[in-house]
Amino acid sequence: MKIKRRGKGHVGKFTRVFGRSWSSGKTFDKEAARLLRRISCEKARRMKAELLCVGSELLLGQITDTNAVYMAQGLARAGVDLHRKTTVGDNLERISGAISASLERADCLIITGGLGPTTDDLTREAIAKALGVELDYDERLGANLKELFDKRGWKMGETFLRQAFLPRGAKELLNPVGTAPGVWFDGEVGGANKLIFAVPGVPKEMKRMFDETIVPALLEKSEGERMIIVSRVLRAFGIGESALADPLEDILTTSTNPTVAPLIFGNTEVHLRLTAKTKTEEEATTLLDDMEQRVRSRVGQYIFGRDDQTMPQVVVKTLTGHKATLSVAESLTGGMLGSFLTEATGASLVFLGGVIVYAPSLKSEMLGVDEATIESHSVVSEQVAREMALGAQKQMNSTYALAVTGEAGPDSATGAPVGTVYIGLALPDRTAIVEHREFFGDRDAIRRRSALGALDLLRRHLHDNLEV
After folding, report:
1. What is the pLDDT of residues 14-28, one digit of tens each?
2. Which of 84, 164, 241, 387 has the maximum number of C-beta atoms within 10 A of its C-beta?
């Protein structure tokens, strides 16, 4: 694949690196990322960009818009401010209206979707309508399409030639892995210079065109000094969004660089997103480190990880570092706790195994829970959770053992309120601690929170009692 070597210095080198990477089948590599960060520090008047995602399937919820996530992250790395993302269905008037509105606000508009050969692929027509120009048939693009179909032995219908039309004044945006060419417009609109890039909605095509052409073009267009945008996410469990925000209110409302914003994730965690804008990645890291320390000094007991770290990964890593092992005994979670643990890389080094003891009789037969304890306190009790944990530890000879028993609902089998959960943790000295929790939500939410709550109990114990 050929890449036109545009620009000088780091920009030209960046483009050549992409060409080398893609021709060898590699993705966005470390050298390209380093050059991109370096260019980002050398350039930019703060270019304002918007995304327009086209497709009725997006509005109907039939597919997840992963393209917007990918491009938003790429624009942030490049130091381009993304101000808005819009989604519209396959309707010419609405698409062209969205394009016109974006061009009034932004310097650059990136469009995904609507470039295929069918009659509901209307992005080319919408761009032309918004610019007030005609669509022109490009003989070279038409010939390329015919040649491609001939080489592959395909019969090409006339509708495929719709892809050879471009809005007047625009040029082709090369698509190296698909049949639909993109659209690249660089010109004056309403007295100001505007950029429009349109790429197919197929993710592998979008990524190639975005990484290889759009990002280098944006870097070349930038002027002055660029600020990069770097984000970090702190992940918390065992506390609600408002309860987490209260002790951080002054930070949330007054901090401007980095900014701090809470958001709920997966109905089980609360995340704090820290975002810094600086000239260099090193400066951003310093700002984020300082802010993370401030946040942890107030709510650190709830924060278990950063960015992509999951609770099981954190627990497995900590156990591995101390050469400790773990076993589990599950009742209401029905194997979910063990499943979470085995999702973490390296779990085989520390996780010995587990038992699912749903019936009261199995708690006694397999874990040695005293029948009198069950009779006196019921299976949903502190006493049973303690004996389950100690029984699992003994049976599997593990350093630690977790046990979970409770009522997941929708009806209570023991008389305990739905959401009542007891989590037992057997310790290396063969004693056990038990935590009583009240979880809310439907059956699945209670089970998930119970499994994560068990891991969090172990995480907190390890953090408080071992050097981590």
Report:
1. 444 444 443 344 444
2. 387
- Rounded to 10°, the helix 360-367/382-396 angle is 40
- Where in the chain are the domains? 9-221, 229-304, 311-465
9: which residues sit within 8 A by CB, 6+ positions away? none
Q: What would the CATH number be for the domain defined by 229-304? A: 3.30.70.2860
Q: What is the DSSP letter of 301?
A: G
User: Which pLDDT does position 10 carry in this prediction?
Assistant: 46
User: Cα 264 to chain center, whole Å?
Assistant: 13
pTM, rounded to two decimals: 0.70
Listed residue (139, 303, 168, 315) closest to 236, CA to CA: 303
Q: Which residue has the tokens 């032309």?
A: 128
Query: What CA–CA distance (Å, rounded) separates 432 from 458?
Result: 11
Per-residue model confidence as pLDDT tens digits over 37-67: 444 444 435 789 999 999 999 999 999 999 9
Both tokens assigned to 6? 């545009």
pLDDT per position as a tens digit, 82-114: 999 999 999 999 999 999 999 999 999 999 999
Structure tokens at 413: 């089998």
- Pick from 39, 47, 71, 38: nearest CA to 221: 47
Q: What would the mean pLDDT of 253-273 be, rounded to a whole number? A: 90
